[in-house]
Write a sequence for this structure.
């Protein structure tokens, strides 16, 4: 198995860009998390620009955007803002950008509706619903109480959002600057995550679906507490094997890379290893999701990390359950535990 190749040694400096392919420009915005950055993409579109993803909706990110506008855009405007999925580092400034330029918002329907559900704490997108899901999977009350402090966090990072959008569909072709880009919808990380493939440039804008060094978060959420997102994710990334091995992948985090097929194999091996470890642990004694966190994540987790880790632990256990390898039972305490069939 070969490792990914990185044609760009360093990311662009703040408020600067790198042209990674004809008419495709890379910029990077800081994030106040352990994952401390997001890659955004500017596509030349005739006399306009298409912006792909927008960064967090905060003053520091908007200040960087203002520098991009003044130093990069010139007389050109923005006709379209495309958001790959609902997570705040991708959707946070979409409304601000659309209002500033009179641009249209392009995204899948599932992601559009999920932004509004998350902003308005509806359809299961509440901290309380999240804590209830985690409690039903073994998280203790003390750590659940810490998660309550996250209430309203999403809306603070996505302070506004448009009420209409141009819907993107699986397989449709969109034209940008005279070139065709194919929409690829993936699942597991988000409801209907959009990636874009340009055959002419041999380029894939992968969003969070295919990252070079980390495995994207794949989690069960309260809106669909019996779901199997890990299977959806693995099935989704498998489709990228239909693309050329030497395609240049533009991820939302990390450096652009070539070697998509090798990276897919690495991710498959990573999850297979974790699943085998969970199966062995549950064979020793029935386990709930909270009890397997140390198996999946071999480090001390803070409150924010527990939020992602619990959802991912449930996702791995659900994968084994739906694969017929583990039985799921709910005890008198209301907690789901998993043991061999």
């Amino acid at each position: 198995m070969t490792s990914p190749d990185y044609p760009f040694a360093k990311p662009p400096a703040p408020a600067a860009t790198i042209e990674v392919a004809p008419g495709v420009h890379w910029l990077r915005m800081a994030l106040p998390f352990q994952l401390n950055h997001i890659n955004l993409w500017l596509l030349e579109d005739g006399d306009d620009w298409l912006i792909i993803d927008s960064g967090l909706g905060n003053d520091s990110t908007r200040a960087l955007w203002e520098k991009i506008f003044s130093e990069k855009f010139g007389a050109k405007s923005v006709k379209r803002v495309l958001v790959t999925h609902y997570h705040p580092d991708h959707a946070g400034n979409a409304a601000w950008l659309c209002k500033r330029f009179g641009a249209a918002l392009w995204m899948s329907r599932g992601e559009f509706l999920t932004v509004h559900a998350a902003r308005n704490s509806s359809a299961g997108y509440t901290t309380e619903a999240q804590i209830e899901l985690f409690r039903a999977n073994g998280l203790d009350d003390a750590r659940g109480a810490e998660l309550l402090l996250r209430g309203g966090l999403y809306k603070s990072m996505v302070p506004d959002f448009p009420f209409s959008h141009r819907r993107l569909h699986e397989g449709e072709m969109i034209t940008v600057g005279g070139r065709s880009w194919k929409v690829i919808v993936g699942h597991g990380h988000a409801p209907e995550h959009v990636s874009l493939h340009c055959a002419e440039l041999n380029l894939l804008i992968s969003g969070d679906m295919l990252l070079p060094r980390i495995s994207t978060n794949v989690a069960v959420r309260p809106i669909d507490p019996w779901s199997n997102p890990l299977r959806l994710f693995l099935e989704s990334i498998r489709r990228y094997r239909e693309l050329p091995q030497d395609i240049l992948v533009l991820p939302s985090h990390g450096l652009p890379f070539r070697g998509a097929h090798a990276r897919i194999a690495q991710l498959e091996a990573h999850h297979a290893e974790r699943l085998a470890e969970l199966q062995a642990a549950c064979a020793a004694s029935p386990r709930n999701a909270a009890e397997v966190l140390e198996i999946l994540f071999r480090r001390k987790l803070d409150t924010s990390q527990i939020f992602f880790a619990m959802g991912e632990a449930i996702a791995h256990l659900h994968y084994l359950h739906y694969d017929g390898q583990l039985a799921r039972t709910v005890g008198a305490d209301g907690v789901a535990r998993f043991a061999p069939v």
